[in-house]
From TrEMBL:
<dbReference type="GO" id="GO:0016757">
    <property type="term" value="F:glycosyltransferase activity"/>
</dbReference>
<keyword id="KW-0808">Transferase</keyword>
<protein>
    <recommendedName>
        <fullName>Glycosyl transferase family 1 domain-containing protein</fullName>
    </recommendedName>
</protein>
<feature type="domain" description="Glycosyl transferase family 1">
    <location>
        <begin position="93"/>
        <end position="206"/>
    </location>
</feature>
<keyword id="KW-0328">Glycosyltransferase</keyword>
<dbReference type="InterPro" id="IPR001296">
    <property type="entry name" value="Glyco_trans_1"/>
</dbReference>
<dbReference type="Pfam" id="PF00534">
    <property type="entry name" value="Glycos_transf_1"/>
</dbReference>
Length: 740
């Protein structure tokens, strides 16, 4: 461990036969092509395993993000198409297999347009040796310059796998370029592609690759032996003091030992296979088999410590009397603290000069860096008619976010906020987002709920917009020219208009054909596992209390126009609040249906585990289209590149199709007040009622109660003033004696 982390401050003896030992034992009980068959790899496929630094074995770190940047051209070249030159599979060995890293890699693969299953993930909590044995090529993709020779490279070379690695000094010290491994310059994708091409010939491993693998296997077996023996000899040379009549050993420079004494290890390898297989990623055996007096002493010492800890735990059990004593002590300390505060208030104090007060105030302001940044962000947006909130949920989305006066970040998690920015913390504005379950199933619309909650405190502009961080990744975010067109257009716009720039056809890559025309609802079904229409209709029916024989699925036209996606739109702020009013009630109805499902932890919109986590996200992404169409809003598509404007689904063509009666503002407002009254009275329709937690709860009774409370406080203040004046008139006002 020290050889990897800090060889500069410790006397480290590098090198150990443990990795070679483990590989040889593993090879006796496992066969390469049988493992490939069990893991779904074909015999003629070329499997490339990408490994990284041992600093990050237990997490998917920036080290692998850098690796993806370097490996990207390889993935696009070899894993993007079915080629007659061969089939390639890229395996990333990192992190934990249960923490969702495979989903992250698959997301990257889909963005790069790679073939399905061409990229896989295996975690270090699985069979690491098996993954290395299945490989045809091992690529060391780390950007970290380590102090010790990476153990995974040793194991890969021992398995006879050709290795491609950056030209780090520690690696070049032990192996030769072109003989045992192939080097490429760090952070140079073109150099990596050239090195990779040397191992491939006509879609198969080249003869050169097999030669390098064979040489590497022979070299790895005793590669670190000389260095290890030399270091131990140096310790003995500095520790032992020989008597004057002793025959002194030869100097270290004359050591000729260049290999391990494998004949001494052979018996242990044959008998101790189970111990070798239990070696972790640091090359340390995790077996419980003891083989020396040191192990026996350690076991006895650990046993004594455990007994003492158990005995101490029994003695430290807190009784009821102890709690009473602790309470008395705390009460006494609180009393003394209050008494000292009262005494300090009565004591004469020295008043500072105005210069000192001003200096201290300026000093405190300099330390409030974040507050200063937010003030600057507000100043940049002063006078802007519109602000677009970019919604994101993790630090991985930071590179996709925009900067400037037009945009402001909206973080769905407090821990994910960008440093030194004035991003809005959605969790602090809406307590519901503290719960991971609701934050995951609501996704971006949860951030919209937080902005709408007491909107005057955060947004004071006539227009408001939103955009998912995924828009930049899918290349549908606004260009500079389109941003300028949007800012100029909203200043001249009159009436209710919704401008959007990310349309539905770009979200998923689905195409139309002559036999099966994709409509709005069919697209929604595709994006929600085929359950969109049913779930939407049931939620709409429950929201308005419609009987079963009444149609409850709003019709959407097939006029060839575009529909909004990725929450990329701008509208007037009052229209946004009306949309949120509708959305809160719809989400509550959808959640009620999901909660009433017979299956535990089920999702009405999907059956896959990943989609269950984000159950409502895709249907809520399309909800703004239904509301805008049937509420009579003008819908205009803004080309994100050129900035050209084109109206979609003109209002004059909607006549006879719009369900205006269900989207009327007066009806929605009355429904909202009914729900607020029920919440205020505590008359909850079900145990887990979501609606009160998604925003403000207001109705006429609350306003009247607040007005009565203000009036009562005003009258109490007048009464106390009259009593005080009466006391002065009747008893007189007497000034206290000086010094009394």
């Amino acid at each position: 461990l020290y050889s990897v982390l800090d060889a500069g401050n410790f006397f480290v003896i590098p090198g150990s036969p443990a990795d070679v030992w483990a590989v040889e034992a593993y090879s006796k009980s496992h066969e390469k092509y049988q493992l490939r068959k069990e893991n779904g790899f074909l015999k003629d496929e070329i499997v490339v395993v990408v490994v990284g630094s041992s600093f990050f074995y237990n997490e998917l770190s920036w080290d692998y993000a850098v690796a993806m940047h370097d490996v990207g051209p390889l993935l696009i070249k070899y894993a993007r198409r079915n080629s007659v030159e061969g089939s390639f599979k890229f395996v990333f060995l990192c992190g934990n297999s249960t923490d969702g890293y495979n989903d992250a890699l698959q997301e990257v693969a889909s963005r790069l347009g790679l073939l399905e299953h061409s990229v896989r993930h295996y975690g270090f909590n699985g069979d690491v040796n098996g993954v290395l044995l299945m490989a045809d090529i091992v690529l060391y993709g780390s950007s970290q310059v380590e102090q010790g020779f990476p153990s995974l490279i040793v194991r890969a070379m021992t398995f006879g796998i050709p290795v491609i690695t950056p030209d780090f000094p520690i690696i070049k010290e032990y192996v030769a370029e072109g003989a045992q491994v192939i080097f490429f310059q760090k952070d140079n994708p073109e150099g990596l592609s050239r090195a990779f091409s040397l191992f491939i010939s006509n879609g198969k491993l080249s003869k050169f690759a097999r030669t390098v693998a064979s040489a590497g296997r022979l070299h790895a077996k005793n590669m670190l032996a000389l260095d290890c023996v030399t270091r131990y000899a140096r310790i003995l040379e500095n520790v032992l003091n020989f008597p004057s009549d002793a025959l002194l050993p030869g100097p270290i420079s004359q050591l000729q030992q260049v290999s391990w004494e494998w004949n001494l290890f052979r018996k242990e390898i044959d008998l101790g296979t189970g111990d070798i297989l239990n070696m972790d990623e640091w090359g340390t055996s995790t077996s419980s088999r003891n083989s020396s007096v040191v192990d026996l002493l350690e076991e006895e010492f650990t046993k004594n410590i455990t007994e003492n800890e158990n005995r101490s735990a029994d003695q430290d059990t807190i009784s009821e009397l102890d709690w009473d004593v602790l309470h008395d002590i705390e009460s006494s300390e609180e009393y003394e603290r209050l008494e000292m505060e009262q005494l300090e208030e009565r004591m004469d104090g020295t008043f500072a000069s105005w210069d000192d007060i001003y200096r201290n105030a300026r000093k405190s302001e300099r330390f409030k860096f974040e507050a200063n940044e937010r003030d600057e962000g507000e100043l940049e947006r002063t006078g802007q008619p519109v602000c677009i909130y970019e919604i994101y949920s993790g630090s991985g989305a930071w590179p996709f976010l925009h900067h400037g006066s037009l945009y402001r970040g909206l973080a769905l998690s407090s821990a994910a906020r960008r440093l030194r920015s004035d991003d809005v913390d959605a969790v602090s504005r809406l307590h519901l987002l503290n719960y991971t379950h609701y934050r995951d199933i609501l996704c971006e619309i949860g951030g919209m709920f937080s902005i709408a909650n007491k909107v005057d405190n955060i947004h004071k502009r006539p227009w408001i917009g939103f955009q998912s961080w995924r828009a930049a990744g899918r290349k549908v975010s606004l260009s500079i020219s389109a941003e300028k067109v949007l800012e100029e257009t909203v200043q001249e716009t009159e009436g209710d208009v919704m401008y959007f720039w990310a349309h539905l056809d770009m979200d998923g890559g689905f195409t139309r054909n002559n036999n099966d025309v994709l409509t709005f609802w069919s697209m929604c079904d595709i994006l929600n596992g085929g359950h969109c229409r049913t779930a939407f209709e049931d939620a709409f029916r429950q929201m308005y209390g419609l009987p079963s024989h009444v149609e409850a699925l709003p019709p959407m036209p097939e006029d060839g126009g575009c529909w909004s996606a990725l929450h990329g739109w701008v509208m007037q702020t009052p229209s946004f609040l009306e949309f949120i009013m509708f959305s809160r009630m719809f989400v509550d109805s959808l959640d009620a249906l999901n909660a009433n499902s017979s299956k535990v932890n089920s999702c009405l919109l999907s059956s896959s585990e990943l989609e269950k986590k984000h159950c409502y996200c895709r249907v809520l992404e399309l909800l703004v289209n239904v509301w805008a169409y049937h509420s009579g809003r003008k819908m205009v598509y803004l080309d994100p590149l050129s900035g050209s404007l084109q109206e979609q689904h003109p209002i004059e063509r909607r006549r006879g199709f719009m369900w205006m009666k269900y989207f009327n503002f007066t009806l929605l407002k009355s429904m909202d007040e009914d729900l607020a009254e029920a919440a205020d009275d505590g008359d909850y329709p079900r145990e887990k009622w979501l609606w009160p937690w998604t925003g403000e709860v207001h109705w006429k009774g609350i306003y009247e109660r607040e007005r009565e409370e203000r009036y009562r406080q005003k009258m109490d203040k007048k009464r106390k003033m009259k009593e005080k004046m009466f006391d002065r008139l009747t008893k007189g006002y007497r000034q206290k004696t000086l010094g009394g």
